[in-house]
Amino acid sequence: MWKRTEADPEPRPAAQPAASPPPARQRDLATIGSSIRIKGDLTGDEDLLVQGQIEGKISLKSNDVTVGQNGRVQADIHGKNIRVEGEVRGNLFGQQEIVIRASGRVQGNLVAPRVTLENGSKFRGSIDMEAGTKPQPPAERKPAATPPGPTPKVAQAAIAGEPRNG
Amino acid sequence: MRSPPQPRVELQPPPAGHQSLALRSILDRLAHRRRPRVLDLGRAAGANVEFFAGHGCSLYIADLYRSLAGEGRLPPDPPRLDRALDEQLPQPATGPFDLILAWDLINYFDPPRLEVLGHRLGSLCRPGGQMLALIATRDRIADRPLAFSIRDAGNLDYRSSATGEHPPPRYIEAQLERLLPSFSVETTYLLRNGIQEYVFTRRALPGRAAPGAAPR
User: Fold this and answer.
1) What is the pLDDT at residue B2?
2) Distance between CA atoms of A111 and A36, rounded to whole angstroms?
3) Rounded CA gap, B81 and B87, in Å?
4) What is the C-alpha separation between A70 and A51, in angstroms, rounded?
5) What average pLDDT does this structure show over A100-129?
6) Position with higher pLDDT, B161 vs B111
7) How many C-beta neighbours within 10 Å does residue B163 have?
8) CB–CB of B186 and A142 under 8 A?
9) With contact defined as beta carbons under 8 Å apart, do A26 and A6 qualify?
């Protein structure tokens, strides 16, 4: 069900010399193939490429998450770097960066220090790039709010007195 | 043998653009607010995200026309439009916006539907907040809204995905003030390209029930 590939396929020697520095930690990449459907929460400690369908929640805060062109996700996604080339309905929380590629379609809110929307991408929702921002819970669907009542005369005068050109 | 260099394929034509006189005045006003909230009714544009992030704003992108009409037409009557707007616009409970970027959207709403849209937008804008609209004064416009992106504080780029043209309603100021009673016209600039930029201010007055809105 899960295809596991090595991001860095270089072979390592069977035994390391004692004096040599420890090898850099290899980043594993899990792939959810296009025929796979998952309902539930995903957690783990490796990068993830989604080409299938996920409904639930993806929580890989220290790893990169990519929703590939065939990927369909209906879930909140927490990741270090998040890239979307497919379709996501849910909120994205990137520790470092969120990128919506030209083929990407996202409906939800984006929270990350850096957000990039490529031309051609489809996005609807809010974008918050303030570091450390806590996500707002989605507002409850209610009838339209009653327009605000009368304001103090000072405020009204300030608006009425603004210059008007044209 | 070396093959001749392949011509670079442009996926999209370069964007057209125009000088905006309204945008700078809006930004000057926003600069006095702490972390202003901006509602962009247009399509998502990376340039706009970067621009407003650089100005310390939080941004909500509604992509409203495509959300309402897809590749087709807007909901045919005011009650259905009102229900669709309820689904597609952020809820007033998320907090009022300091600026609404309507771009050229108003040109695609006839008077009854514009009244409904205006009521919804009024409920989303804080009193004293602003709205930018680009109203066509020429005879024909693209058959769907343009995608605007901000090059800098004085210049806009835009792309069209239109398949044809049609005549716009060519709203004048008095009509707009009547159809958008929650807003007053603060400033307008008539540009040489047949676009009139309007800066509206949200009135601090009680509104009224949405005309033609479905009962809740």
Assistant:
1) 54
2) 28
3) 10
4) 5
5) 94
6) B111
7) 9
8) no
9) yes
Cβ–Cβ below 8 Å for B128 and A159: yes
Asked if B137 and B196 count as a contact pair (C-beta separation under 8 A), the reply is: yes
**Residue from A89, A111, A126 to probe the interface with B (highest B Cβ count within 10 Å):** A126
Residue bearing the bigger pLDDT, A16 or A26: A26
Q: Is A135 exposed, middle or buried (0-12, 13-18, 19+ CB in 10 A)?
A: middle
* Tokens standing for residue A29: 């990449």
H, E, C per residue of A56-116: EEEEECCCCEEECCCCEEEEEEEEEEEEECCEEECCEEEEEEEEECCCCEEECCEECCEEE
B40 at A interface, C-beta within 8 A:
no
A165 → closest Cβ in B90, B119, B188: B188
Q: Does A11 touch chain B (CB under 8 A)?
A: no
Nearest CA to B25 out of B182, B198, B149 is that of B198
Contact check, Cβ <8 Å, B122/A147: yes
- The answer to whether A124 contacts chain B (CB < 8 Å) is yes
> Which of A117, A147, A148 lies at the smallest CB-CB distance from B49?
A117
Global pTM exceeds 0.90: no
Of the candidates B26, B33, B204, the residue with the CA atom closest to the CA atom of residue B102: B26
Contact B173 A166 (CB under 8 A): yes
